[in-house]
Amino acid sequence: MTVIDRAPQSILSTPAPVRTGSSPEPGEGPGRSEGSLIGRVVRRLVNLTGTLVVIGAVLVFLFLAVGPRFMGYQTATMLTGSMAPEIVPGDVVVTTEQPVADVQVGDVISYHIPVEDHRVETHRVVEVIANPDGTIAVRTKGDANDAVDPWVATLDGDFVYEQAFVVPVIGDAIRALRTPIVNTILVYGAPAVLVLGVLIMIWSRPTTPQTNTDAGTDTDTGSASHVDAGPAAGASDAGGSDAAVAGRQ
């Protein structure tokens, strides 16, 4: 009897290389990382600047528009240099109510002048006059003026507004905001800046990278099927050899 020994043939396959993710994508590198970092820094600076501007605008609005209604003070922008150097053009004078009976020489008060357009004047008291009817009148003078104001002003009511403190420069910003060109810029520019800020926020959102899971699954399945098919084929060949030997017997 002749015995034919045939070893099973297995088909071996080399697994496909799997990308670990450590190697950079095409186009990635130190230059691109530095550019992304600079972009993030610029966006943060822009956002911080915008936030500070908004906060400042809200505080100024509360100080000039809301505060006088609820906190009992008034604000006036100095337009001339008559009170220099203590108060210069562009400064905002904040005044609070004081009893008329307490007015003294040297106080800086805001009052309506009794002549011309009855505008509000902020000058220093140089003389206090008690009228026979019980009212109080004052003579005033600007610190930078050579002469006393050419009128005597009677202080009506029980209170007069006296200087509390001065906010420098802010009056210039207020007057600039009232000019036609600035109003136009605010009307059309503010919405544009708002839209631009929203677009920047949308574009700056990080994107989540997608992994190629399907390709990995296909590779693993193909390798497993190749490895398993080898012994099956070998077993089939061996069975055929045994059958041939049995037939010869």
Automatic annotation (TrEMBL):
GO terms (BP aspect): signal peptide processing
Biased composition (Low complexity): 213-249
GO cellular component, one term: membrane
Enzyme Commission designation: 3.4.21.89
Main enzyme class: hydrolase
InterPro entries: LexA/Signal_pep-like_sf, Peptidase_S26, Peptidase_S26B
Region (Disordered): 1-35, 208-249
One MF term in the entry's GO annotations: signal peptidase activity
Localisation per UniProt entry: Membrane
Protein name as it appears in the record: Signal peptidase I
Origin species: Arthrobacter cheniae
